[in-house]
Amino acid sequence: MAEGVCIEVEGSIEPSPERVFRYLEYGGSSPAAPVVRKLEGLVPKAHVLVQPKVLYQIRSVDEVVDLCKNDVPAPIQGAPFLAFGLVTVGPAIEEEVEKLRETGRLLDSLILDALGSATVSELCEQTAYRVFRWAEERGSNASRAFEPGSGSSSWPLESQRLIFANLQAEQIGVELTPHLLMRPIKSLSFLMGIGAEIEQASMPFSCQGCKRLGCPYRYEPSASSPYGH
Ligand code: SF4
User: Fold this and answer.
1) Residue 128 lies in a domain
2) Which of 78, 79, 139, 157 would staple 149 via disulfide (CB 3.0–4.6 Å)?
3) 139-197: per-residue pLDDT in tens?
C-alpha cells in the first residue's frame, strides 16, 4: 500500500512569533520593540513571497526504493511503513533576502530570512501531523520525524538520497545538489516510521537529544497533546 500526496498550499502559513524569534536567534526571549515592529511590517511581504508546497509519500517497506539494512534510524528499524516528507516555500523569498542583503538592508534581510525559515518549519510540522493522523486513523503509531543531518536525529546527511529516491521532488520544484543540499534553500525533508510496534511520538519535531545545548535555534516543545497542533 502506498499513499502519495502533492499539495500546493492555499492561503498563508502563519508561523508563531516564537518560531520566528527562534530563527532570529532570540531563543525563548522576545526581540526589542523596534525589531518586532519591523517584523510585523515584513509579514505581508513574506506572505506574497512564500510559495508553500508539500509532498509526502507513505510506503510499505517492501515498496521503498533503495532501502538497505540500517538505512533508517534505529528507533524505526522494523517499521512496516515509512513516510517520506518534503516541503518548500519556493525560491522567491530567498531571492528577496539576498537582494535586501546586497543593498545594505541587513535587518530587513535577516528578518525576512527568519520569516521564510519559520514558515517552512511550520509547514513541515503541519505535514508531519498529517502523518500522525494517517497512522491514528489506521489504529497505528507514528514515530517522531527524522531529518537528515539534524543534530537530534543522529541520521546522516547522506540519508537525503533515500528520501529523494522515494519522492518525485520535481513535482514541487525541489532538487538535491551533489553536495546533498536542497534547492530552494528553504526546503525541509524528513522520514517517519509507522507501525503498531513503533512508539507513538508526542510531537514530530524536537531538539531533544541534541548535544548542542547552547544552540540558538533549540526547540523543545512541551507535549500537551499529540494532535493538538
Ligand atoms: S539544538 Fe540546534 S543543532 Fe541541535 S537539533 Fe536543535 S536546531 Fe539542530
Assistant:
1) yes
2) 157
3) 999 999 999 998 877 899 999 999 999 999 999 999 999 999 999 999 999 999 999 99
Query: Could you give the number of structural domains in the chain?
Result: 1
Q: Which atom of ligand 1 is nearest to the CA of 213?
A: 1
119: in domain? yes
Residue among 147, 182, 175 at smallest CA distance from 72: 147
At 85, which CATH number?
3.40.109.40
Determine the atom of ligand 1 nearest the C-alpha atom of 153.
5
C-alpha cell at 147: 531529518
Reference 210, options 199, 220, 222; nearest CA is: 220
* Whether the Cβ atoms of residue 169 and residue 86 lie closer than 8 Å to each other: yes
Binding-site residues, ligand 1, Cβ < 6 A: 150-152, 207, 210, 212, 215, 217-218
pLDDT tens, residue by residue, 69-122: 788 999 999 999 999 999 999 999 999 999 999 999 999 999 999 999 999 999
Within-domain flag for 12: yes
Q: Which atom of ligand 1 is found nearest the CA of 217?
A: 7
Phi-psi region of 179 (alpha: psi -120 to 50; beta: other; left: phi over 0): alpha
Distance 57 CA to ligand 1 centre (A): 25
Query: Does 201 fall in a domain?
Result: no
